[in-house]
Amino acid sequence: MDVDQPAPGPGDAVVAVEAAAINPGEISIREGAFADLWPARFPEGQGNDYAGVVHAVGPGVEAFQPGDQVMGFQPRHAQAEFVRTGADRLARKPTALGWPPAAVIPGVGATAYAEVEALDLSEADTVVVTAGAGGVGSIAVQLARLKGATVLATGSISSFPFLESLGAIPIEYGDGLPERIRKAVSGPVTAYLDHFGRGNVATAMDLGVPPTRINTLADGTAAARHGVRTVGEAEADTPEVWERLAAMAVAGNVVFPIDSIYQLADVRAAYNKLAERHTRGKIVLTMSRAVQPTLAVTPPS
């Protein structure tokens, strides 16, 4: 639906959005799974992370001016042509970084950064990353590899070439997972990043991983039962982290894989694809009215 274009108040900026990410949590919000935590009152906006160009600034804003390229995180408002935000919630986007990868940095980028930092990984570690081909998982794999860790990533057999391109040892998910993990490495698994739920915390415990070195983003019940960690986006929700990740992307140290790009008008089709849970990286919406083909990006080997 169409709404009025926002105007900036004191300390605010209005950003003309170029690209916005879509996230699985928004499906759950619409279905009422998070009604107590994030109640929805329809009609309502959706989307959190985005990148665009500063369109206008309000009184007191000196750090940004119209024309600046930026990244931001504005819950339930990002999937729109214009977003109003506090100027202190913006990070500068390098001109060398494309709009789609910039749009996913404040969400999945920050989430992966926070969980990898929380486990204090090093070259002495062997870490399992579940759903390694997904939005968060594909970045966590790369960040863990930069720490020197040996990385095993779970996924479907069809995702194995993609996982290998990220530097991971691919492991098929499903029944018998602990045995396949043990066969893949000679030593113990020392850390576990769970993005999938469905018994993965129990698998980590079965492998002998200490609770303090297990982090789950998908199973709060298991986290409470076993005392494992739940570090995520909130622990790295700062423009400073976003800019650090953007600089890593420009330097070629981390790739933010984009599975496909849809126009804003095709948002329903984008969420239908996301719901299949077989993406390679992130799905992104573009606000451009020009025809925008679906685009697949695979990181270099």
Describe the protein.
The protein is of the alpha/beta class and 301 residues long. Helix 9 links the parallel strand 11 (258-263) and strand 12. The chain has helices spanning 24-31, 99-118, 135-146, 160-165, 177-184, 200-206, 220-226, 239-250, 267-275, and strands at 12-21, 49-57, 69-73, 82-86, 90-92, 126-129, 150-155, 169-172, 191-194, 214-216, 258-263, 282-286. The chain contains nine helices and twelve strands.
Helices, strands, pairings?
Layout (H helix, E strand, L loop, with lengths): L11 E10 L2 H8 L17 E9 L11 E5 L8 E5 L3 E3 L6 H20 L7 E4 L5 H12 L3 E6 L4 H6 L3 E4 L4 H8 L6 E4 L5 H7 L7 E3 L3 H7 L12 H12 L7 E6 L3 H9 L6 E5 L15
Parallel strand pairs: 6-7, 6-9, 7-8, 9-10, 11-12
Antiparallel strand pairs: 1-2, 1-4, 1-12, 2-3, 3-5
Helix pairs in contact: 2-3, 2-8
Give the low-confidence spans.
289-301
Element string (H = helix, E = strand): EHEEEEHEHEHEHEHEHHEHE
Proportion of helical residues: 25-40%
β-sheet strand percentage: 15-25%
- Count of helix runs: 9
Oligomerization status of the protein chains: single chain
Record field, number of beta strands: 12
Largest sheet: 7 strands, mixed
Radius of gyration: 19 Å
So what's the overall shape? globular
Class by SSE composition:
alpha/beta
